[in-house]
């Protein structure tokens, strides 16, 4: 399978590292030969139709910050759409940074690939939160597979789990912690009694929070995931504007301490149901499945046949997110 990666930040590099680590095993186990022929970042692209040297690719990005400096065949200033027109590939991995203003450039990359009859795997929440129906309809119209397990919960299995393992059930609602950064901050505040500002700065120093953490702490990231789950699993035709969103920036050590005295924790919870699409701080019982620490994500799917089913996993991380992307690629290979 010839693959093109659009975006070569943390996730894109994680995918390349997973290809390095697992290439032979995946070929042996599934008969799938992974061949990365193009990778694109803001500087341009690295292209080799015979297959990029993954060691050289990763080293070039690490040492120069630019894929256009790739020694064998780097191309400066070329756009993602231009690469998609020029190279012959089977599957696009779209992992450019999330843009919840207009979903670009990911939306254009995904639609271009689909219109050209190529399969798409993405972790990019922006176009899914804003244009889910358009993308799903395009995949169906062009008879290609569109996979996005990595867009919700990183390594936490939820979308494919709902569609495949719980395929005999009607899923009535989903309720969960969908953002690892906020869970880390609230967990630390509960354990240490520290202020929001102090804990946020600690999270930034550890690389858990972005330099600009607005999307995480104001609930925007979790809201995108609520939209994706609503569309994909509950078949609710929703966009980002349909979600009621409140973040954690107003949570005080006093409110956390008061909750603990009553046997509760405060967590940022996303709710997906026919009655509500919402992200807000809520009380959860200590000792419940939602009493998870660190950057873990957790979600409970309420079903008609299996009652409540809860899944837990690391909600962020380069290799963790890449693991979900890899599962989607293997799924496409098996069913194509």
Describe this structure in words.
By secondary structure, the protein is of the alpha/beta class. Helix content is 42%, strand content 21%. The protein contains twelve helices and 13 strands. The strands form two sheets. A seven-stranded mixed β-sheet has the order 4-3-2-1-5-6-7, sandwiched between helices. Strands 9-11-10-8-12-13 form a six-stranded mixed β-sheet. α4 runs parallel beside α5, α5 packs parallel to α10 and α7 (180-192) crosses α8 (196-205). The N and C termini lie close together (11 Å).
Helix and strand topology:
Layout: E1 2-6, H1 10-30, E2 35-41, E3 44-47, H2 54-64, E4 74-76, H3 80-86, E5 91-94, H4 106-115, E6 119-122, H5 125-141, E7 146-147, H6 159-165, E8 171-177, H7 180-192, H8 196-205, H9 214-217, H10 220-232, E9 244-245, H11 253-261, E10 264-273, E11 277-285, E12 296-303, E13 308-314, H12 318-335
Parallel strand pairs: 1-2, 1-5, 5-6, 6-7, 9-11
Antiparallel strand pairs: 2-3, 3-4, 8-10, 8-12, 10-11, 12-13
Helix pairs in contact: 1-12, 4-5, 5-10, 7-8
């Amino acid at each position: 399978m010839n693959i093109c990666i659009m975006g070569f930040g943390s996730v894109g590099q994680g995918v390349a590292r997973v290809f390095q680590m697992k290439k032979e095993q995946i070929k042996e186990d599934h008969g799938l030969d992974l061949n990365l022929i193009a990778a694109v970042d803001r500087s341009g692209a690295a292209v080799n139709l015979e297959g990029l040297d993954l060691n050289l690719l990763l080293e070039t990005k690490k040492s120069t910050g630019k894929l256009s400096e790739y020694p064998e065949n780097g191309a400066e200033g070329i756009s993602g759409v231009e690469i998609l027109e020029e190279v012959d590939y089977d599957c696009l991995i779209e992992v450019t940074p999330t843009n919840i203003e207009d979903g670009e450039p990911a939306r254009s990359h995904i639609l271009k690939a689909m219109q050209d009859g190529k399969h798409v795997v993405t972790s990019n929440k922006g176009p899914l939160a804003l244009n889910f129906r358009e993308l799903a309809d395009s995949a169906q119209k062009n008879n290609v597979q569109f996979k996005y397990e990595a867009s919700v919960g990183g390594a936490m299995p939820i979308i494919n789990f709902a569609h495949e393992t719980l395929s005999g059930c009607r899923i009535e609602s989903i309720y969960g912690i969908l953002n690892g950064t906020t869970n880390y901050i609230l967990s630390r505040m509960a354990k240490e009694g520290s202020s929001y500002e102090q804990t946020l700065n600690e999270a930034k120093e550890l690389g858990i929070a972005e330099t600009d953490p607005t999307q995480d702490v104001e609930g925007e990231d979790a809201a995108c995931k609520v939209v994706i789950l609503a569309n994909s699993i509950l078949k609710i035709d929703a966009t980002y504007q349909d979600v009621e969103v409140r973040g954690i920036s107003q949570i005080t050590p006093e409110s956390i301490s008061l909750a603990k005295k009553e046997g509760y924790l405060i967590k940022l919870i996303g709710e997906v149901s026919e009655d509500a699409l919402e992200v807000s701080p809520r009380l959860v019982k200590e000792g419940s499945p939602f009493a998870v620490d660190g950057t873990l994500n957790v979600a409970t799917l309420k079903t008609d046949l299996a009652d409540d089913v809860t899944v837990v996993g690391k909600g962020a991380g380069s290799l963790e997110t890449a693991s979900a992307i890899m599962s989607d690629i293997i799924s496409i290979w098996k069913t194509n």
